Amino acid sequence: MSGFRITVLASGTGSLFQALIDNQNIHNAKIVGLICDRDCPALERAAAAKIPAQVTATNSDKTSWDLDLLKTLDNYESDLIISAGFMRLIGQAVLTKYEGRIINTHPALLPNFPGAHAVRDALAAKASITGSTIHFIDSGIDTGEIITQRQVEVFSGDTEDSLHERIKVVERELLVKVVSDFVSGKIKTRPRS
């Protein structure tokens, strides 16, 4: 199969996924699949772009779900897997097989404010600066090697929604740039086995 193959994991609206769709022709990149952990608007974006998509149900135990996810990922034969607003922890079977080829976007400047409530946590801490991080996924929660970061100023009247929207703009730009760097070889992934 030609081109740089990307699979996206998503749980929500799919705005990061849409940014990738809109820019997938960069350096011959191709989104070969979307995997969601629930029914969500990202699936509609995949259908509109004619990208294969499926839901890997989370109603089984964590180990079984991880093995189901691994089997699904294997079918896509991806060079890079992007967790773009995917709200599930990736299990060890997937991490072992795809180490160095699976990345995450996070709405904070890691190592500050890891976890699912980064924007809320930044506001609660009265941070004046937060931002977006793209990092490799490891077995910790937002502890993998940082690929890139960009700052976003916190304004005095910010709500969680207003701050998160500004972070998402930066996050989309960063993600498109990082994918371009992977495709061009500026950032290296572990080769497919």
What does this molecule look like?
This protein has one domain (4-184): Rossmann fold (3-Layer(aba) Sandwich). Helix 1 packs parallel to helix 6. The mean pLDDT is 92. Strands 3-2-1-4-5-6-7 form a 7-stranded mixed beta sheet, with helices on both faces. With 193 residues, it is of the alpha/beta class. The protein is globular, with a radius of gyration of 16 Å. It has helices at residues 15-22, 41-48, 62-76, 92-98, 118-124, 160-184, and strands spanning 4-10, 29-36, 53-55, 80-83, 102-106, 129-136, 146-153. Helix content is 36%, strand content 22%. It is built from 6 helices and 7 strands, in the order βαβαβαβαβαββα.
Write the topology of this structure.
Layout: E1 4-10, H1 15-22, E2 29-36, H2 41-48, E3 53-55, H3 62-76, E4 80-83, H4 92-98, E5 102-106, H5 118-124, E6 129-136, E7 146-153, H6 160-184
Parallel strand pairs: 1-2, 1-4, 2-3, 4-5
Antiparallel strand pairs: 5-6, 6-7
Summarize the structure.
The protein has one domain: Formyl transferase, N-terminal domain (Rossmann fold). It has six helices and seven strands; from the N terminus they run βαβαβαβαβαββα.
